[in-house]
UniProtKB/TrEMBL annotation:
Keywords: Dioxygenase, Iron, Metal-binding, Oxidoreductase. One of its GO terms (molecular function) is dioxygenase activity. It holds the Pfam family PhyH. Transmembrane segments: none annotated. 2-oxoglutarate(2OG)-dependent dioxygenase that catalyzes the conversion of 2-oxoglutarate to succinate and CO(2) in an iron-dependent manner. However, does not couple 2OG turnover to the hydroxylation of acyl-coenzyme A derivatives, implying that it is not directly involved in phytanoyl coenzyme-A metabolism. Does not show detectable activity towards fatty acid CoA thioesters. Signal peptide: none annotated. This is Phytanoyl-CoA dioxygenase domain-containing protein 1. Its cofactor is Fe cation. Gene3D superfamilies: q2cbj1_9rhob like domain. The keyword RNA-binding does not apply. The keyword Iron applies. Belongs to the PhyH family. PHYHD1 subfamily.
């Protein structure tokens, strides 16, 4: 792992761009100001306070393969969330009738997948001049925003995210065209579930893919291939301070542990795709729509 400071410019040095190519992830400390972090946290609090999720749409979020297929892939609430703002919850927060067992604001795992398009605060952050400058410094010519998420990592029971590659869910031809921008709105520590990476694991292709099943053919999604049993000793922890930006290559293997601490680990993250010369797989669960084509990052 390596750490560099953005010095407020948002631009990594040339040597760190090379390290990103070698390692598949990069930390830019101090990318966001305290005020920017607090503005997003305040806005998400307002969104949560106003949420109204029908009983049949209370979907628990998981990264375990079987649970993913049962809880997400088979529900239209998840599959049609690519151009909307929708709510996904931790496991065990509902009773058998779908009623909350904990306060609603403490039950949410994430909000996705189009905050960048429908909320002015998150749209402003996503398309900010320093994000655009960073994308240009990385050589992106025609980046588009494909999805965004606000991740809560709730205290005491915020769920683990099992080892995975983002390109398993956001597949392109050729590979290497998807980039995650993960922004820490609170300190991410070993105790509250910071990210872990396998450096250099982005160079061996994609081990499995989550694909959308053809209409009328049964469950909403299925997996092609399988996730290897990754050696836990290969993972490197990546604790960062509030305001840090973590660049995540679409094929680098990463995870996070369950949050058993007293502190949440809130983050805003979105994914870019280099659209020039790239085909977005029509089998991906997430598809652009007539209402929301993937918006261009550059204004």
């Amino acid at each position: 792992m390596w750490l560099i400071r953005s010095r407020g410019s948002g631009k990594p040095e040339a040597w760190s761009c090379l390290k990103f190519q070698e390692e598949g992830f990069l930390v830019l400390e101090g990318f966001l100001s305290v005020d920017e972090c607090e503005a997003m946290k305040q806005r998400i609090g307002e969104i949560v306070a106003e949420m109204d999720v029908p009983l049949h749409c209370r979907t628990e979020f998981s990264t375990q393969e079987e649970e993913q297929l049962q809880a997400q892939g088979s529900t239209d609430y998840f599959l049609s969330s690519g151009d909307k703002i929708r709510f996904f919850f931790e496991k065990g927060v509902f009773d058998k009738k779908g009623n909350f067992l904990v306060p609603p604001e403490k039950s949410i795992n994430k909000i996705g997948h189009a905050l960048h398009a429908h909320d002015p605060v998150f749209r402003s952050v996503t398309h900010s001049p320093k994000v655009q400058a960073l994308a240009r410094s990385l050589g992106l010519q025609m980046p588009v925003v494909v999805q965004s998420m606000y991740i809560f990592k709730q205290p005491h029971f915020g769920g683990e995210v099992s080892p995975h590659q983002d390109a398993s869910f956001l597949y392109t031809e050729p590979l290497g065209r998807v980039l995650g921008m993960w922004m820490a709105l609170e300190d991410a520590t070993l105790g509250n579930g910071c990210l872990w990476f396998i450096p250099g694991s982005h160079t061996s292709g994609v081990s499995r893919r989550m694909i959308r099943a053809p209409a009328g053919s049964g469950p909403g999604t299925c997996f092609l291939g399988s996730e290897p049993d990754w050696d836990s000793s290969l993972f490197v922890p990546t604790p960062v301070q509030r305001g840090a930006l973590v660049l995540i290559h679409g094929e680098v293997v990463h995870k996070s542990e369950q949050n058993l601490s007293d502190h949440s680990r809130q983050a805003y993250t979105f994914h870019l795709m280099e659209a020039a010369g790239t085909v977005w797989s029509p089998e991906n669960w997430l598809q652009p729509t007539a209402e929301l084509p993937f918006p261009a990052l550059y204004s």
